[in-house]
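Thread: arginase, structure

OP (GT): Posting the sequence first so everyone is looking at the same thing. Length is 338 residues per the record. Can we get the structure tokens written out before standup tomorrow? I want them in the notebook alongside the other entries.
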Amino acid sequence: MSTIGRRGIHYLHKLNSANVSAALLEKGQNRVIDASLTLIRERAKLKGELVRALGGAVASASLLGVPLGHNSSFLQGPAFAPPRIREAIWCDSTNSTTEEGKELNDPRVLTDVGDVPVQEIRDCGIDDDRLMNVISESVKLVMEEEPLRPLVLGGDHSISFPVIRAVSEKLGGPVDILHLDAHPDIYDAFEGNKYSHASSFARIMEGGYARRLLQAGIRSITAEGREQGKRFGVEQFEMRTFSKDRHFLENLKLGEGVKGVYVSIDVDSLDPAFAPGVSHIEPGGLSFRDVLNILHNLQGNVVGGDVVELNPQRDTVDGMTAMVAAKLVRELAAKISK
């Protein structure tokens, strides 16, 4: 934990020990939340005005960092991922052109509204119910600035629930979701935590925020994962049958009759040979080109997405996995921007 984080918690404990009223604490918490949302709102306004002034964009991907790691069931390193991904996106070792030929330096393709200040919010004693609401509201603030669309940098996979909830509510209906992951993340409440990174898609399906949920790259799934998949009508594609499923997954057509397509990419969907810097190392995953083929060939109106579960604390090979995550963000930005 950062020095600032420790000081914040220490200060909160001093307030509690001094018998400060619940009303006064809540007032302070509300001020922190308001300030956090104001920061995102003003940044989104600035970037939205810029994109509109340039003209010609129907949709423009906008980065929003959510540095949350405490809902991880193993390691909390994903909280440190957003700045590492940004650094890798703009690393001089590569150019700023996507494989589709879109130029990331063009704000009509990619902008950045900064991070939700997760640690500062938690330091004030705000619980996960309210934190998830702040994340959702932050996403909605981005979407209010047409033509910005959220491209979220995790953080652990628990962030997908409040993000997809916001996208669905803002658009006025469910979306189709393409979810690439080693795990289905659909436990009812993993280890008793309803907001666990292993439970995010259970919350999404319960809320009716998705019509279809397609999960690919799966290779670590329990009986509960399969049962929950059947309960919610999830289309689960396990790696053990990938050779058979490849043609279907590389020719997906999603989003017809709903508000669009949301793409959620857990970096551990990739085989650890391509992405070792993750908390949960699961051999036997997708190659990087497998993922890009699925993404590039996807037909549908992609209205948002996230790249999650990079763990910089395990990314020991010269930031290789950060570069992998950055490449996923770059290509997803090209898919969103129109």
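GT: Both are above now. Quick notes for whoever picks this up: Residues 1-6 have pLDDT under 50 and may be disordered. The radius of gyration is 19 Å.
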